[in-house]
Write a structure and sequence with these properties.
By secondary structure, this protein is α/β, with parallel strands linked by helices. It is 43% helix and 17% strand. The strands form five sheets. A seven-stranded parallel β-sheet has the order 3-2-1-4-7-8-13, with helices on both faces. Strands 5-6 form a two-stranded antiparallel ribbon. The chain has a two-stranded parallel sheet with strand order 9-12. The chain is globular and about 65 Å long. It binds guanosine-5'-diphosphate-rhamnose.
Length: 326
C-alpha cells in the first residue's frame, strides 16, 4: 500500500486529493496545523480513511517529524496562504508559508530521505499567478514569470526551489503550474464561489446584491477534481518535470456572473451587482490562458468539466446548501 502525505489537507485541493488517493488504495495522511483545528472534523468526516498528523509549514522540525512518522512514498504540497488579495495585506506571512514553506518541506524530505530504492516523490502546487503581467498568450512551461502580488512572488520562490532541489539533489520533484481551479469546495472568498453562493442566495430571497471588484479580469477556470488527477499523474512518471495545467479557455469575471445568473434563470444580472473598489487589488493579473499541451501529450490528461458545467455545478451545490440551511 502506497503512503502519501498531503499538506493543505483542509483546503479545496487537499480534500479532493485525499479522496482521489484513498480511492486509488493509498494510505493517506494529512498535515494539520494548530491545536484543535476546527476543520479537522470536516476532513475526517468527509474521508474517514484519512489520518491527520500535526505539523506546520512554518516549522521545519514539525515537518521533519511528520515525514519521519509517515514514511511517505509521495508528498503533495498543497498548503499555502492562497488568497491573492490577502497577500497584499499580509505579505510577510505569505512569504513565510507560501514561499519558505516549500523550502522547509523540501528540506524535510532531503533530511529524512526515504528508502534508497524508493526515494520520496514530491509535488509542488505552483500557480499561474507566477505569470502575472503575462509576457505571452497562451502561457506555457517556458513563459517567463512576472508575478503581480506577494502571493505570486512567494509561488515563484517555491517553484524555483523545487526545480533547484530536483537539479541539485536528484529529488523526484514535479510542479504543476495550475491555472484557477474551482468547484463546490472552493472557499467563499474566491470570486467564483462568492458569485455562485450569492446568486443562490438571491434566488432564495436571502440576499439582494453581490459586491465585487474588477469584472474585466480574465481567467482560465477549470474544475479542481480534474486538476488533482493531473497532479497525481505527474508524480507517477519516471522523470519529474513541470507541467502547465489549464483548460485552454479564458473568460471574464463578468461572463462567470452572466453564466451563474443564467443557471439560476434570473434576468438582468446588472441589477444585482454592486461594484466596490475595496475588492480591487493594488496590481491586477488581467489575462490568464494556459497551454496544457505538454500535460496532454505526456500525462494523457485533459480537463473534462467545461466552463458551463463548472458554473452550473457550483450554483446547484450552493442552492442545495443554502436551501438546507434556510
Ligand atoms: P485568483 O482568484 O486571484 O485568480 O487566484 P480570485 O478568485 O480571488 O480572483 C479572480 C479574479 O476575480 C477578480 N475579482 C474578485 N476576486 C475576489 N476574490 N473577490 C471579489 O469580490 C472580486 N471581484 C473581482 C480578482 O480581481 C481576480 O482578477 C486563485 C487562487 O486560488 C490562487 O491561490 C491560485 O494560485 C490562482 O487562482 C491560480
Amino acid at each position: 500500500m502506497k503512503r502519501a502525505l498531503i499538506t493543505g489537507i483542509t483546503g479545496q485541493d487537499g480534500r479532493h486529493m485525499s479522496q482521489l488517493l484513498t480511492d486509488k488504495g493509498y494510505q493517506v495522511f494529512g498535515l494539520i496545523r494548530g491545536q484543535n483545528n476546527p476543520k479537522s472534523q470536516i476532513v475526517t468526516q468527509e474521508n474517514p480513511a484519512l489520518e491527520l498528523v500535526d505539523g506546520d509549514l512554518r516549522d521545519l522540525s514539525s515537518l521533519v517529524a511528520a515525514v519521519e512518522q509517515v514514511q511517505p512514498d509521495e508528498v503533495y504540497n498543497l498548503g499555502a496562504m492562497s488568497f491573492v488579495a490577502l497577500s497584499f495585506r499580509q505579505p510577510e506571512l505569505t512569504a513565510d508559508i507560501t514561499g519558505l514553506g516549500v523550502l522547509r518541506m523540501l528540506e524535510a524530505i532531503r533530511i529524512v530521505g526515504g528508502a534508497e530504492n524508493n526515494p520520496i516523490r514530491f509535488y509542488q502546487a505552483s500557480s499561474s499567478e507566477m505569470f502575472g503581467q503575462v509576457r505571452e498568450t497562451p502561457q506555457n512551461e517556458s513563459t517567463p514569470f512576472h508575478p503581480r502580488s506577494p502571493y505570486g512572488v512567494a509561488k515563484v520562490f517555491g517553484h524555483h526551489m523545487t526545480v533547484n532541489y530536483r537539479e541539485s539533489y536528484g529529488l523526484h520533484a514535479s510542479t504543476g503550474i495550475c491555472f484557477n481551479h474551482e468547484g463546490p469546495r472552493r472557499g467563499l472568498e474566491f470570486v467564483t464561489r462568492k458569485i455562485t453562493n450569492g446568486v443562490a442566495r438571491i434566488k432564495l430571497g436571502l440576499q439582494d446584491t453581490i459586491t465585487l471588484g474588477n469584472l474585466d479580469a480574465r481567467r482560465d477556470w477549470g474544475y479542481a477534481g480534474d486538476f488533482v488527477d493531473a497532479m497525481w499523474r505527474m508524480v507517477q512518471k519516471d522523470k519529474a518535470s513541470d507541467y502547465v495545467i489549464a483548460t485552454g479557455e479564458t473568460h471574464t469575471v463578468q461572463e462567470f456572473i452572466e453564466r451563474a445568473f443564467a443557471a439560476a434563470e434570473i434576468e438582468d444580472w446588472e441589477r444585482y451587482i454592486v461594484k466596490d473598489p475595496r475588492f480591487e487589488r493594488p496590481a491586477e493579473v488581467d489575462l490568464l490562458l494556459g497551454d496544457a499541451s505538454k500535460a496532454r501529450s505526456e500525462l494523457d490528461w485533459d480537463a473534462k468539466v467545461s466552463f458551463e458545467e463548472l458554473v452550473t455545478m457550483m450554483y446547484e451545490n450552493d442552492l442545495a446548501e443554502e436551501s438546507r440551511r434556510r
